[in-house]
From TrEMBL:
CDD domains: AdoMet_MTases
GO terms for MF: methyltransferase activity
The name this protein goes by in its record: Type 11 methyltransferase
Keywords: Methyltransferase, Transferase
SUPFAM superfamilies in the record: S-adenosyl-L-methionine-dependent methyltransferases
Keyword RNA-binding in annotation: no
Highest taxon of the lineage: Bacteria
InterPro entries for the chain: SAM-dependent_MTases_sf (IPR029063)
GO biological process: methylation
Key word NAD present: no
Amino acid sequence: MTGGQAVTTVHGRCCPTAVYEAGLRSVAGRLWIRHTDGRRESLPVDRWRGGVKPGDAFLLRRCNGPTLDVGCGPGRLAAALTVRGIPALGIDVAPFAVELTRRAGAVALRRDVFGRLPGEGRWAALVLADGNIGIGGDPARLLSRTTELLAPTGRALVELEPPGRPTGAHLIRLEGPDGRVSRAFPWAFVGVEEIAHLAAGAGLRIMEIWRSKGRCFAALGS
C-alpha cells in the first residue's frame, strides 16, 4: 500500500500495515501502540530507520553465515550485514518497508514468515529484533517455525523485553502520525524470564543471553 494506493479498512479501521507505513514515512517517525487497557506506547521508529543503532553491533557479530531478518522493517540490519559481506535476506509484510530495505542495499521480499520462504532449513542465523518475537501473537508458534527455517547448527537471535516490562499476548492497535488507528491485531511481548520455557517447547535451548545499551537478547539453538 504505497505510492498513493487506497488504504484498506476493516470495519472502519485501517489495516495495521497502512498505519505502520505512515509511521515509516513520517519525518518525525511518530507511531504508537494502543493497548486494550488504554495505555499508549511510543514505538522507536527512529531506531528502525537509518544505520546501525546502539545495541545492534553485538547482535550483528553473531550472524556468522546466511541470515534471515524477519520483520526487517526499513532494513538497517540486513543492510549492515550485506556491507560486511554476509548474505542476508529481509522479509516484511509491508511493501514500503521492503522498498526501504532495497534502497538501503539489501535483498528483501514481501513475505509472511509463516508462508513459503527461500532457503528453508538452511539459514545459519534468523533475526527477530525490535520485538519481532511478538509477530502473530503466538511466540511458541513462531519459534517452532524458526526451527523449520534454520540449518541444524543455526541460531535464532531474539530481542526480548527487559525485566520488569509487561509481557504476554494481547490485541493491540497502531496509531499513526496522521491520527489514523488500525484495527486490532494479535501481538506478544516476551521477556527474558520467559524465553527458556518458550524455546524448550520448540525444541530449542538458550545458548546465550546478553544485554547491550539497555536492550536484551538471547541466542537459541538446537
